[in-house]
Amino acid sequence: MPLAILSSDETAISLAVEGQVDLVDAFEMACSLGPHDCIVLEAESSTATPELFEHRNERMNQ
Known about the structure:
By secondary structure, the protein is of the alpha+beta class.
């Protein structure tokens, strides 16, 4: 399942994943549980444009 980190800092992370809907939903649920030493206040999902992963794959192949 492709994953792209869009932004991150010491308090938040924004990322994108691509894949089957049920797998993406399971990934979102796992993220909402968070690491054992963190409190996750919010997790949300939305559809992203496939171009995000196309550009990332192009950069990785260079």
